[in-house]
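Listing S7. Sequence submitted for prediction.
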Amino acid sequence: MYEIAVQHPPFPEETDLCKLSKLIQEGFRPETPHNIPKTYKIVMEKCWAHIPSDRPSITQVQRILDKVYRKIGGDLVPRTDFGGTSNSPHKTRHISATFS
């Protein structure tokens, strides 16, 4: 969710993946962007919970984000069935348009 919001990895300056993994396990998180919807920010931060059982499921995240994007007038990504056709009744737009 962070990469979608800011369009870059959370720690681009850290090239040592072992060190980065240890920092994340210790609770280190990137600063949350200020220009994103409040609900998106809350869900993103809940996904970072140290204890996995405290994190929302992907179904919970989808439901919450569906509500957020309906309020702002579209879906982040069109939902598709296995045939590849959109079944979303909502208009879609590129992610950069959502947060600008």
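Caption to Listing S7: primary sequence and predicted structure tokens for the chain studied. Residues 26 and 50 are 8 Å apart (CA to CA). Confidence is low (pLDDT under 50) at residues 78-100.
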